[in-house]
Amino acid sequence: MRLQGKMSPTAAGSHSAPITRKVDIPAVRATVGMHVVGLDRPWEEVPVLFQSFVIENEEQVDILCDHCEWITIEETGCVVMPWEPAPPPRSTRPAPGFRVKLPLAEELPQASRRYHQARDYVDTLLHDVADNRDASLGEAREIVRSCVNSIANNANAMFWLTRIRDQHSYTAEHCVRVGLLAITFGRYLGLPGKDLEILGLSGMLHDVGKMRIAPEILNKPGALTRYEWARMRRHAEYGFQLLGSDHELEPEVREAALSHHERLDGRGYPRALSADDIGRTTRIISIVDAYDAMTSDRAYRMGIPASDALRVLYRYRDTQFDRELVADFIRMIGIYPPGSLVELDTGEVAVVLATSPQHKLHPLVEVVLDRDGRLCEPHPINLSEQPSDGSQGASAITRALPDGSAGFSLAEHIRRLSVPNSHATPAPR
């Protein structure tokens, strides 16, 4: 074990540590109660909230074991420890992330147009399917390509748009959001353009089969009966059949429609596939689909906060969802995703513009409401550069807020920013 600090040899092959010391140990030896102060890789590569914390439960132990070979803990007391070799160098696998080509203010109007184009197309498509009319899939690919280009310019713009929710247009908007989030996730992972296109098509078309389900079942406010649930499960097969009429669609797109409710443990539907039979595209769509569904208001329940949805995804890694993809998705979404409405410790309300993996709790925000709850001239604050004592204004986020809080509408804010010659949001890079 490698110890950091001043040591005094006590015997051959051993040494004593100072009263307070930092110790590098294998991650597999982590236990509840340890004070973790360092990792063998950047903090942003590990889905933990704080960059120094006391392990409180076995779930946190699992996270460290999954992502690290060695961790640094701070110990107190004088203990004689045997010497062990230093940890090996950290993995050289490049960390996922985004590159920004255009400022948010410049890309947001374009992204808004592309988002609404996609929503209108999917809405028309779903109505055609519901009315037993021939559904045209010809436009889907070009719409997806335009969204891929927008996300390449500035992914934060589409993040903003995916925060807008309309319960009355759930299925159409859900399909669009899953498509956009899947593209964004794929780009975060560094996937090539063709794969991003397939992900976008898979996401936007994954629930098309729901239009073959009776509306009274699809929109039922209460629990489904056994018969109704059996009918609902058929939507995966219906979607697969509907997409089969277009021979230009990649097999992965049809497969995602059929298999996005399959589970790694073999307990999913409709075919109870094993993990080896579930492809990467489907695994990504399953994660994104579940996340968006959990965070959306439905006829039978209210959506849950993003942080709670991420905890559910993590809880069901390995059994329902892919372990590594879940960890990457958690890192991408973060604690306060772009487009989140947050309250600052000054009483002001702000919109999150961009996040930094190095400062998970202190993103770049734009203040939109003053401490009295009145609209104000939007102005950016980089919370990672604020003094901790609050002597120069806001220093921290106190809580996340649902859209519509204090009378502020993110959708209306985006509309204002998308109008030519209106106020432009300062450009985060």
Notes on the protein architecture:
- The protein has 14 helices and 13 strands.
- A hairpin with a 2-residue loop joins β10 and β11 (359-369).
- α3 (140-153) crosses α6.
- It is of the alpha+beta class and 429 residues long.
- It has helices at 58-67, 104-130, 140-153, 155-162, 170-188, 193-205, 215-218, 226-233, 235-243, 251-259, 280-294, 306-315, 323-333, 410-418, and strands at 3-4, 8-11, 14-16, 20-26, 35-39, 53-54, 70-76, 80-82, 341-344, 349-356, 359-369, 375-382, 397-401.
- The protein is globular.
- The protein has three domains: 3-81, no CATH class; 104-333, Hypothetical protein af1432, CATH 1.10.3210.10; 341-418.
- Helix content is 39%, strand content 16%.
- The longest helix is centred in the N-terminal third of the chain and has 27 residues, at 104-130.
- It has a five-stranded antiparallel beta sheet with strand order 1-4-7-5-6, with no helix packed on it. It has a five-stranded antiparallel beta sheet with strand order 12-11-10-9-13, with no helix packed on it.
